[in-house]
């Protein structure tokens, strides 16, 4: 049950997050549903919209998604509605989680026994998403503190710019080389390892700052077995065409076709199988 006293007081903790740039995630750790105490140890706001409540780190507050949430609005509302209408009885895989801004709407759309699977390698965003899960009592969500790619490993994640004082928030991204205090090393896994092979996935939705292709190539088993609708952040037609070629090359038997763009998200549907 949500503590409304804390929410409408616009809760702010008194302790800043220390050591975030050196913290390494435990690849075996998953947060499933409500945690005993997921209150983060950094300054944060609580926001609310029609779907639920959200933890917003104070240094993210001026960015696009947090600004909308703090105004009581929904980020990418048409995309959320599309997914809710087409999720069927299966699971949804969505990521990166950021602060869990998709979680309340998607968890409400799931059928009994279905699950939401997500991941977030940025420690501060991961902690915020944990708290979003707790605030909404989301017992059908599974969250892992990892990035996803084609193969397991360790890669640098850029979480800030300049001298480390400008948090990249939802724009945190995997980069080729470490950049001092602006990057941290994070564990990378595959979506095939992240999602158990006995789960039927209806929708795979990814917005991971240019790393979508690598994630798709690490989800061969899941895509071949579940034949999900695939939603990838792709505002530019050139990127949309690249994604479609990749899906057709690696999953020819499913004959994926482009089905348009909602907001900045390209929709691909299997037409065979």
Q: How is this fold's topology laid out?
A:
Layout: H1 4-8, E1 31-32, E2 44-48, E3 53-57, H2 64-70, H3 77-86, E4 91-95, H4 103-109, E5 116-119, H5 123-136, E6 141-144, E7 147-148, E8 153-158, E9 160-161, E10 166-167, E11 173-174, E12 183-189, H6 191-194, E13 201-206, H7 212-217, H8 220-226, E14 229-233, H9 237-250, E15 256-262, E16 265-270
Parallel strand pairs: 4-5, 4-13, 5-6, 7-12, 13-14
Antiparallel strand pairs: 1-6, 2-3, 8-11, 8-12, 9-10, 14-16, 15-16
Description:
This protein is of the alpha/beta class and 273 residues long. It has one domain (75-270): Vaccinia Virus protein VP39 (Rossmann fold), CATH 3.40.50. 27% of the residues lie in helices and 26% in strands. The protein contains nine helices and 16 strands. The strands form four sheets. It has an eight-stranded mixed beta sheet with strand order 1-6-5-4-13-14-16-15, with helices on both faces. It has a four-stranded mixed beta sheet with strand order 7-12-8-11. Strands 2-3 form a two-stranded antiparallel ribbon. It is globular and about 50 Å long. It starts with a helix and ends with a strand.
């Amino acid at each position: 049950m949500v503590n409304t006293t804390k929410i409408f007081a616009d809760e702010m903790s008194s302790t800043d997050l220390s050591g975030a740039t050196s913290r390494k995630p435990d690849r075996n750790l998953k947060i499933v549903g409500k945690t005993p105490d997921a209150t983060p140890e950094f300054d944060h706001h609580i926001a609310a919209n029609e779907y639920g409540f959200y933890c917003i780190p104070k240094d993210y507050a001026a960015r696009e998604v947090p600004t909308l949430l703090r105004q009581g609005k929904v980020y990418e509302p048409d995309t959320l509605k599309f997914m809710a209408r087409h999720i069927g009885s299966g699971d949804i895989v969505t990521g990166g989680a950021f602060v869990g801004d998709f979680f309340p709407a998607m968890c409400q759309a799931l059928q009994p026994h279905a699950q939401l699977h997500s991941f977030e390698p940025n420690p501060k965003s991961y902690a915020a998403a944990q708290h979003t899960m707790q605030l909404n009592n989301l017992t059908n969500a599974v969250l892992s503190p990892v990035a996803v790619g084609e193969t397991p490993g360790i890669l640098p994640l850029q979480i800030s710019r300049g001298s480390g004082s400008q948090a990249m928030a939802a724009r945190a991204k995997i980069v080729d080389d470490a950049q001092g205090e602006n990057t941290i090393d994070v564990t990378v896994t595959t979506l095939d390892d992240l999602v158990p092979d006995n789960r039927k996935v209806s929708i795979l939705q990814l917005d991971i700052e240019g790393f979508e292709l690598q994630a798709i190539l690490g989800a061969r088993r899941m895509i071949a077995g579940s034949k999900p609708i695939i939603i990838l952040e792709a505002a530019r037609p050139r990127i949309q065409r690249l994604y479609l070629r990749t899906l057709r090359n690696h999953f020819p038997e499913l004959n994926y076709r482009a089905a348009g763009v909602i907001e900045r998200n390209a929709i691909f549907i299997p037409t065979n199988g």
